[in-house]
Design a protein that fits this description.
two-stranded antiparallel ribbon; binds ligand PTJ; Rossmann fold; 8 strands; alpha/beta
Length: about 250
């Protein structure tokens, strides 16, 4: 469908088109459309902008990734369809390995995600030859690469389900996530939850990485001051304030 860029909801409609195309190509799983709808609803409540707590979390996540011995960014179908270029740029900026790691796993989908990321400029993308397992996750969604997620000390898992985030935490990793739902299990258990749209977050991670690189003192301060629970509370307060304002609007 041709969407005029004058349309007031152009970005949102384009994201939907990208996901529908992704389903047709076999990159995105149909459940991904449902997940996106949930994300959209929260984005609507937030105001479809990167709010202050999200920016703080983006800064902390960039700090963690820069500090990591072996940082990995996990990519699923939705992320590959929505922002492959931006994800590859973010990975380059923080020096992270990229691994295609999906919930609804088929060889063919992993291959498509890897292909999309390579077209976007990634030199290497892991995930096609899994030789390890995320401890405590049943086959096949626990499959991962030994020199990728398995041995990572810091993992960014955008649009994640709670089980895998919990299992990664159980393996002693620092878990960073991007999730527009501040109430999800993933959001609650991660070390840094970025409540922002993945499409806004990836460019922001790349920006913060180039800003923070080499500034150890600032990274130390950011990491010691960041409190995920407090950050999520700020997100909920932001949503509550917006709803309270709407409540006072007259519909007569
Ligand atoms: O490609 P696969 O097989 O790995 O499957 C991917 C999905 C997304 C289907 C799978 O991981 C899944 O079912 O995820 P969940 O449990 O629905 O969680 C996805 C979370 O991401 C939800 O809390 C959504 O609110 C959130 N979300 C959806 N779209 C976005 C988002 N967060 C940030 N940016 C978005 N664009």
């Amino acid at each position: 469908m041709k969407i005029p860029n004058s349309h007031p909801r152009y970005d949102s409609l384009m994201a939907r088109e990208a996901l529908v195309e992704g389903v047709k190509e076999g990159l995105v799983v149909r459940q991904g459309l449902i997940a996106h709808g949930r994300g959209e609803a929260f984005d609507y409540l937030i105001g479809e902008v990167s709010i202050e707590p999200a920016v703080e979390a983006e800064c902390a996540a960039a700090g963690h990734l820069l500090r990591a011995r072996h940082p990995v960014i996990s990519v699923n179908g939705n992320v590959a369809a929505l922002c492959a270029n931006e994800t590859v740029e973010a990975a380059k900026a923080v020096g992270a390995t990229i691994e295609a790691n999906i919930f609804h796993r088929t060889e063919q989908r992993v291959r498509k995600i890897v292909g999309r990321l390579k077209n976007a400029g990634a030199k290497e993308v892991l995930g096609l030859d899994p030789d390890a397992r995320i401890e405590g996750l049943d086959h096949p969604r626990g499959l991962c690469a030994k020199n990728g997620i398995y041995s990572a000390d810091v993992v960014l898992v955008p649009l994640e389900d709670g089980d895998r985030a919990q299992a990664l935490k159980g393996m002693g990793k620092v878990v960073l996530t991007i999730d527009l739902n501040p109430l999800s299990r993933t959001s609650r258990i991660s070390d840094v939850t970025i409540v922002d749209n993945v499409t806004r977050c990836m460019p922001s991670l790349a920006r913060f990485a180039s800003e923070l690189r080499g500034d150890d003192e600032r990274i130390d301060r950011i990491l010691s001051e960041f409190d995920n629970k407090k950050n999520l509370t700020e997100v909920l307060k932001h949503i509550a304030r917006r709803l309270a304002k709407l409540e006072s609007v007259s519909f007569d």
